[in-house]
Amino acid sequence: MTPETAHIADTTAPVTRLAESPDSLVARLRGTVRSGRTRDAAWRRSQLQGLLAFLRERESEIAEALAADLGRSPFEAWFGDVAPPTGDAELALKHLARWMRPRRRPVPLTQRPVRARVQYEPLGVVLVIGPWNYPVNLSLGPMVAALAAGNAVVLKPSEVAPATSRLLATVLPAYLDPDAVAVVGGDGVVTQELLAAGFDHAFFTGGTEIGRRIMAGAAATLTPVTLELGGKSPAIVTADSDLDVVARRISWVKLMNSGQTCIAPDYVLVERRAQDALVERLRATFAEFTAEETGGKRIVNARQFERLGAALDATRGTVAIGGGRDAAALTLEPTIVVDPAPDEPLMTEEIFGPILPVVGIDSVEAAIALVNDRPTPLGLYVFTRDAALADRVVAAIPAGGAVVNHCAIHYLIPSLPFGGVGASGMGAYHGEWGFQAMSHRKAVALKRQWPDPSLVYPPYGPRAQALMRRLF
Length: 472
Known about the structure:
The chain has about 475 residues and is of the alpha/beta class. Helices cover about 40% and strands about 20% of the residues.
């Protein structure tokens, strides 16, 4: 792999597209896959080790890029973008041999003697389209799955996080096999050009509207897709909950990355008799968690800043804390809005910012009905001391994933599949689930040439038909 003295390109230069066309690039990488090189376990391990080396050796540069793009501190950069893919790669290295091993399957009596197995093979060339909110984590995480499964990869980072995109384009390739991995910069037009070249799988993380365009672009070449989208993830809080714990856990995830997290709690539905107390605890927790910060939370760009400001201007709810914003600095104070109207942007559009609506409800049944009247969320969070009630709510509301008495921690459990359903996405990954999503599960049956009973072949007389009906 790459020695520590590897040449590092200028990461301040604009990200440009590769000189070769998308068709040529895909054909070149597909040739590497067809050579059989990527099937070898040693090759897969070397690529995972290269990703780990990049994350460990370039952590300071990653932090600098994330500070420029998103205003992150070095610790936030490590926690949100370095630690998760590091854990993904380490887990894959630990279990790769077991994941790759063919698995025996049972055979019905009528087909014996036969041995049956499922063997996992690379799909081919995978396109990973990264987002801007966690541009390293949500680019390299899918790459871990694709490389562990023996695929070649084209990564298209988000142009909305330009410093991080430059870093990935100029530094990451030196750590990986250049005949099997490429990083291509550019905007949505480049993404569509890549999709038109025809991949064996496309993995996209981002918003629902862009997800529709990705799926439409992939359809022309029958490229299967994994779409990790967003949605308004609700937190339902019953009055019997420990409201101090609820406030800390909701606030921690909501304020992370300025609320620009796809699985952050988007709004809170709380039983009305506990609403005032919860709002007060949330207000105090917001203030406590941001006590060492000056100004508001950094928003990624002017477009998102203006969208959030317009939603606040349009609200008919009560602003309990925050609401201040600085257009020059692109910062927005963490904000709690009490009882916004059901039809206003804060309650109909994914917020993706440090604004938390808190809506009073008369009953858990009313909360279930409200959530189910809206597009399927990526996450569902239920806070209650009643385990049976929690199970009932989790069963009653379709969602990509669910957590009881916390938010978003299912993402941190690699034995669980992570993904959406309906408007929040399709397909899932993490751990072995990611390996399987990026592999073809080939069915293999092995039968001896003897015995070879004649009754299974035509012509079928009455006796043969009767016997086969009984057997089959």
